[in-house]
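Tutorial handout. Part one gives the primary structure; part two gives the three-dimensional structure as tokens.
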Amino acid sequence: MATKVFMEALSPTMEEGKLLAWQKREGDEVTNGDVLAEVETDKAVMELQARGAGVLRKILAPEGSTVEVGKIVAVIADVDEDIEQLIAGADAAHTSAPAKPAATPKAQAATPVPAPAAPKPAVPTPPAAPGARVKASPLARRMAAERGVDLSHVQGSGPSGRIVMRDLDGAVPEPAPVPLAAGGYEDVELSQMRKTIAQRLVESLGPIPHFFLTAEADMDRASDARDALNARDASPRISYNDIILKVVAAALLQHRECNAWWMDGTVRYFDEVHLSMAVAIDDGLITPVIRNAHLKSLREIAVETRELAGRARERKLTPEEYTGGTFTVSNLGMFEIDQFTGVINPPEAGLLAVGTIVEKPAVDDGELVMSKRMRLTMSCDHRVIDGATGARCLQTIKRMLENPLAIVY
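Part two.
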């Protein structure tokens, strides 16, 4: 019996997906669970799996096309089965960017299962000669372009010397000029992630009544504690961001009213703290989640933040790793930004924006001293958090940062 292959909702907020590469070709045998294609969602590059067995008889959406969730992209059937009626109007169901889909039918989300890594040949094919055509998978071409890697200098280990994703590990980026279109400008198609960011910002800053609270923390003692911890040669080294995440998790336990979601008619207050941390990637922003951050040591948070940030930049996060946060921390201190206001990530009710640490004059016990200072701005959803409520939470965060004993416990 024929099986329709649908574009599945591979992330909770996915409305359409871009087919980067078909891993199976028409005529290939398929078993249930086989990886059929690589799909760019609004958050990551995921794998579309077969939900039936047989032969991949027809591919209805070519590589590079954008397809709405719930639309048919291929048909699996027996080799002699008649599928003409099945595919008779399917071609009209697809859109290719930049066309706008008319509607988004509901589709049941499926958790993708990572495919086993293909064995690497013992002798890789040498890099292509100058001017020669480079064989590479569509995903490898996309990631190489994002990383600034010249594929003509990369050895391919795939079939017939094809360059695949694993061959990019360790490849050195090379600066390359970007040619502009005629008229002195360049029109760049929006990625699925950038489309979702635009939509989410409109949904957040428009309907949500934001208000902002700013405080300045004395980071001298936190700096001393960090230096002392890193002097022990333990790995990984503790960063200021790790300390901030640890403090925010501890503070939210004391201020449950800020560790909440707005649910359109109800407010959900959480007893556990699942911290979303904003990570900038080449094509936008994603917020991986540190689960149960209030239960983790400073060193455990340091390990997890690095692992999650690395997977985020490689577009390898699973939906479980970037959904379900209860509060967000966004840190732009490394970019020497003194202070900024962040947009709340719904349904969360709060976000902490962290600026850079600046050494400047301050008064301590009536004396003028030089002090490391850091500005914190808390964005609050006024439907959930009142002014005094948010102020008390931010005050607790400030006091904990100024007292290292509140950080390490």
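Part three, for discussion. Helices lie at 138-147, 192-205, 220-230, 240-254, 298-313, 319-322, 387-401. Residues 298-313 form the longest helix (16 residues).
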